[in-house]
Amino acid sequence: MAKKEQAGNSKRPNIFQRIGMFIKQVFDEIRKVVAPTGKELLGWSVSVFVFVLFLMIFVTTLDFGLGKLVMLIFG
Questions:
Q1: Dihedral angle of Cα 37, 40, 42, 43, to the nearest 10 degrees
Q2: 43: number of CA atoms within 13 Å, CB side?
Q3: 10-33 pLDDT, tens digit each
Q4: Is residue 21 a contact partner of residue 13, using CB atoms and an 8 Å limit?
Q5: Residue 6 pLDDT more than 80?
């Protein structure tokens, strides 16, 4: 049984090799990143702005409505 555990541990690279492999994989993934074009960036920015504006209107309306409801109930 001890031989199986020992054999399993010998296949695993040491901690420094694993850290080095992780850093290499991170840089490989970073190289794949592509910056958006100006048109894409503008489109996404407008989408985010509209979504945030919608949420602001929704929360403001909800706050105002619940405030009026509380004032109506507790007067």
A1: 180
A2: 5
A3: 688 899 999 999 999 999 999 999
A4: yes
A5: no
| CA 40 distance to own-chain centroid | 20
In one-letter notation, the amino acid at residue 60 is: T
d(CA 31, CA 23): 13
HSE toward the beta carbon, residue 10, CA cutoff 13 A: 6
Give dist(CA 18, CA 38) in Å, integer: 39
**What pLDDT score was predicted for residue 45?**
98
- Domain extents in the chain: 1-33, 36-75
* CB distance 41 to 33 below 8 Å: no
Are the beta carbons of 36 and 44 closer than 8 angstroms? yes
Q: 40 and 48 in contact (C-beta within 8 Å)?
A: no
